[in-house]
Structure prediction request, 231 residues.
Amino acid sequence: MRLHRIKALRSGIISKEWLFEFYNHFAEHYEEYSFEQREDGFICQIENKAKDWSKKCIINYTENMSVEWLEQKIIVPEEILLKYNYLDRKTIATVLYQMLNKNFFICLENIYFLNNEDYLNIVKAPSYGCSLYPDIYINIDEIIKKGNKFSEMYETSEEDLEATAKYMTVCFLLETLFHEIFHLIGEEPVLLFNFGRYPVEREEKYANMFAKKMLKQVKDKKILLMFDIWD
Ligand SMILES: [Zn+2]
Prediction:
């Protein structure tokens, strides 16, 4: 299995010095490049004029990461927070931070939760989530719809229906987040440079496998209890 990229990510934390050195060498391969320091990392802009191609690489230092840092990156509109208070940003950040090692967040800028309309305006195709490097977009309307639909297939009583819908929604949400984080890190230059790209036709399969495996671990570790879904 070509999951050595994931194994490499898990095998140790990539340090600030290593990242800075890597990007300095990496950028020198391009005609034009620039560095911009940020409080928690740096931005490396690379450009290949002949091919009319450019990329803005976001690099977050693992040393600066924390649950609070990750929470700040999750942008959820007020209307969604009020309506679905069990989808709390801190809980989501805590679960992701606990389940994935810090390397998975090196190139993450933001995770946006959007309603269907705003999602389609950006992503342009209906889906549950999408990674557009360096951001991840989550279509919360579609995830909630899927959670409700599945709970109706299993439950008959009104009370159980609501609890099951919340449970299913949280499961689908986490699975989608793991899936999109997998796609996002696939575009990370450190990994591309060292391990190459997944074949396009297989990347989706690996993303699904990874997300399902992570969700199973979340369930096994009883981490879902962190979400306020059984009141
Ligand atoms: Zn996918």
The chain has a mean pLDDT of 89. Residues 65-226 form one domain. The longest strand covers residues 41-48. Residues 158-185 form the longest helix (28 residues).
